[in-house]
Structures are given as C-alpha cells and as structure tokens.
Amino acid sequence: MGIVVIGAVFVDIKGYPLGKYVPDGRNAGRVVQVHGGVSRNVAEDIANVELRPTFLSVVDDTGTGEDVIHKLQRHKVVTDYIQKVPGGLGTWLAIFDQDGDVVGSISQRPDLSVLSDVLAEHGDEIFRDCDSVVVEIDMASSLLKQIFDLADRYHKVVYAVVSNMSIALERRDLMMRTGCVVCNQEEAGLLFSDDFTGMTPEELAPIIYRKACTAQYRRVVVTMGKSGAVYAEPDIGCGVCPAQETAVIDTAGCGDAFFAGVTIGLTYGKKLKEACEIGTRLASSVIATKENVCPRFRPEEFGLFPGRNC
C-alpha cells in the first residue's frame, strides 16, 4: 500500500502581482485556483517519485471534489478512502510578492471527522499493509489518537506534517512519537521556545541537536530557505544540507515537497542526511515550476527500492 497520507484537501486561491507588490495598494495581477492542502501536496509529491501513496481525506460533493480525485488518480495516488461530503474542501487564500514569496494568507479548514468512521471500518487493513504513515499533526485530537493507536498496533512509523505550529504545540506528546519533526526556522523557534533569527546553518545545527535530545524527539529537521536545512538525530549527530540553486518562481508547496522527500527517504531505508537531500531535490523542482507542477522522478534516481529496503 506504500505510504499512507491522512489529512485535508484545500482549494488554493493565489494572487500574483504583475509588478512590485505594494502592501497597502491595489495591485494588478493574476489570480489562479489550484488544488492544494499540505497533505494533498505531500501525497502528490510522493506519487511524483513513482511511489503509490494512499490518501485518506475528504472532498465536497461538487465537480471540484471530483476534479481533485481525478487529478490524484492521474498521479497514481490511491483514492479509495476519500470521502465526499458537503463542505468537505478547505480554502487557502494567499497573496504573493514579486519574488514569489507569500506575504499574506487566510485559510478555512474542512471538517475531517468523517475519517474516524473510515478508520474504524478499514483502519486495520490500511495500517497492516502500509510502509509508513503521514498525518497532519494539527487535526482533531480524537482522530489523531485513533491514528497513533493503529500505528502502534501494527508497528508503523508516523511522520507528522505541521501546517499550524501553534496547534501542533498542543500535541507535543504525539510529536515525540513521530519518526521525524520537520519545520522551518520560525516554527523551530516556537517549538523550542527560542529565537534562531540570524543564525547560520552551522550555528543552528548543534543547538537543534541539543534541544532535540532534551525534548526526546527521534529526529528533527529545520528548513532555512536559501540557506538549506539542518538536521539532528539524538545519539547519532547533526549536520547541514545545503540548498540547491534554482530560479524561484513560486515558493508555495516547497516545504511540503521537502517533507515528502524526507519521509520517502526515511521510509525506504535512507539515513537522515540522505533523506534531507531527497527533500531538497524535490523542493527545488517545485520552486522552479509554475503553479508548483513538480516533475516526475523514478525511485532509482534517489537510490530507492521500495519493497527491498523499507
């Protein structure tokens, strides 16, 4: 069944200025709508490495919901457990500046409670046969408990993707049970109640290592934009993964692609440093494409042989 991804689907409404973005002005530009959501993005990114993830989610009962499912199916994502309910799609409204960076956003989350029934009916078969599990750690606590209980029952590693660190901080006990915590530099400051502003990767890596050991996280990766990422694994060590130089068209979704790469690598037998390198390559491919259309890769390009080294 490959990697199982559990989370929400959003419709992303993105506004791009034609020239320099003026925060308090009326900016001429273009507005596009694309399928998004952290978990949906991660599922598609995994599928773009010709792996076949299974996606548990909710869409609405309109043509847009059908379009979401059909696109995922074209990417070879298993959609058998996606539920259709009224209002099942979330919405993310974002404004970008002339450099492709998000300068403001508002999100409306969907209700995922129906997934509890799906897990009650099919959870055993899903978790028994999967290679690992990706879950949005800021979902409802009752749903997360159900997911982690199933993962424990079948000895599956859970990788928590963070879309709202303020909510994720309320689930520190669950984050300690995940295979790896991946966050950006600002989120790391919230996670560890510290300020890492202005630090270089070389300065930050040993600090994150010490804090990961104290907090008893299994692995921690902190992304630092153009400066790359740092990684730490208690009792093993820490290091820096440099970013790949690439033309920046749209940074939305690059963090999700990085997370997907790290999860893929760790699921299929790579060390943390190698997993970060896979994440960096996937993130770079997303940044350099319009509307985040990630190119497809073969698992062998990353030294991955699912079934042999998972």
TrEMBL record:
Q: What organism does the record attribute this protein to?
A: Stecheria intestinalis
Can you give the residue ranges of the Carbohydrate kinase PfkB domain?
3-289
The protein's name: Carbohydrate kinase family protein
GO function term, MF aspect, one: kinase activity
User: What are the alphabetically sorted keywords of the record?
Assistant: Kinase, Transferase
Q: Which superkingdom does the taxonomy of this entry point to?
A: Bacteria
Q: Supply the SUPFAM superfamilies for this chain.
A: Ribokinase-like
Q: Which InterPro entries match?
A: PfkB_dom, Ribokinase-like
